[in-house]
Amino acid sequence: MSTETTISDRNLYGVMAAFATPDELLRAAHATRTAGYRRIDGFSPFPIEGLSEALGMRRTRLPWVVFGFGLLGAACGYGLQYYCAVVAYPLNVGGRPLHSWPAFIPVTFEMTVLFAALATVLGMLAANGLPMPYHPVFNVPAFSFASRDKFFLCIEARDRAFDRAKTTEFLRGLNPLEVSEVPR
Amino acid sequence: MTADPRDPEPTLAGDAVAVPVVAPGHTYATVTDQISAIVLRRGLPRGWLLGFTIAFALTILLHYALIYLVVVGTGIWGINVPVAWGFAIINFVWWIGIGHAGTLISAVLLLFRQDWRTSINRFAEAMTLFAVACAGLFPLFHMGRVWLFYWMFPYPNTMGIWPQFRSALIWDVFAVSTYATVSFLFWYVGLIPDLATLRDRSRSQVGRFTYGALALGWRGSARHWHRYHTAYLLLAALATPLVVSVHTVVSFDFATTIVPGWHNTMFPPYFVAGAVYSGFAMVMTLAIPLRAVYGLQDFITAKHLDNMAKITLATGLMVAYGYGMEVFFSWYSANEYEGYMQLNRALGPYAPAYWSLIFCNVLVPQLLWSHRVRANPLMLFAISLMVSVGMWLERFVIIVTSLHRDYLPSSWDMYYPTVWDWAVYLGTIGLFFSLLFIFIRVLPMISIFEMRELVDDQAKGGENGRHK
User: Is B256 helix (H, G, I), strand (E, B) or coil?
Assistant: First the structure.
């Protein structure tokens, strides 16, 4: 329940600057990183090419997770059918082999896709830390425009280079629409 | 997609056949506000109320017909030996096919970087979900004892039996349930950033809470976008082979049998093309009235209708080739049953259905060669309805004419649908449109964040290059 004027240092999450265009945000992100800040994040109404790299993020490993789960799905799908047709309920159909692998391919494929797709979505949400019902950035009133037409850059207070006055001054120098402190 | 250099010509809707996929003059803010306003305004428009009432009345008919079916049994339908499949499977294949265009638009066109897909992918995906829901009802209730549906899934049970994985029908269970799940995931993931927009724009307490909960706390962080974008592309890459596999497996239900007219290696590609064909027709059937009623001509432009009409024409030609090959195979196989099957289709008791299907699916779409027709929304709407009817007739002809006279003339019989067959069919149409009406009322029917991306793209002078 803190208001703009009375945020104690302990209650300060960071300082946030708003920009009007994606290019300004991208430029500001580069400048902030060059200035030595590391705990920074950008917020935009749509994905901006190069922004996550400018903020120092490495490529996501999500594709490997998805690949692994796809393989697991294939193994589970095939294994399930093998178990049903060969072990649990062997049916002699005109002396044909019990392990009739070509007939097992469609279900194996579907299970591969199912596991991989679930891993994609759940993996993406987990890596992003979602669902997250509360986050300090929402305390900035103007932040509701991050889902419309404004672009934000936030430097967190736990950054080693963070200094309340200097960082605010630094962000002011990047030609933003406004700079505001983010209470926890 | 290359843009055709052609003279701009005014159409009924009053817009020109121009190249842009979003009308000029739009900003991030205007696309956001215009699309979210449809959802966030108060009250129910009169047209919406009327449409929903009709659709919901049909849904009640569906409930009634299904309850009666469960109480009395599948004997109320026209099915019997030899035609044991009838409307249930005709409608199942028809609905599943319609769903396929949604996945094609959202996944395949995304991978091919066709940015015109952006304004139609959201409701096409919703259409997929609702069509799959309608499709799923048919095989479930066709089983007769619907409450035992879980017997299809492999689980340890006291009967000591397991599913037969060499049957195309069990492949269908896995294919359709996977398809429904992945379609839902794709649709929901696409919605998350837009739900966040609605959360931030909504003025009602209930709206803020509901959209907020569904948005999962999305805040548009650059790191989140990065993973989100990767996940979205991965889902598209997974959905693309999936959509092909689903209708392939559906066609296996037929092709793995020895019934004349079904036992055919052509079936998988022929069915997939037919699915995309009927699906695009349905997307046009929905898009043309929606853009007129909600004033979305800026987003669903003449360019979109033109492109969709071209895809409809192309897939229609593939389907026409399929019909030609069916005739050819029945002669070339030198198999008397195959030959008779084809003669019976064209000249037998169901000949009117066969020739209507040729008219609707082969002759009518040839109008789409003319760009004057493609630029005329009313004509396109009429053609898309004809295609939907034609594709339904195609499944009717394939299923009924093949089954009703096969090898043993002593077991030949006629199939006539009963009033309950029609009630369930019309009922699913009602269910489909009820869900669609609810969807366009409570969720953005056009992907807002992708439209903002498109506006950004156009501002940078990019023709087709999307972000990343």
Answer: coil
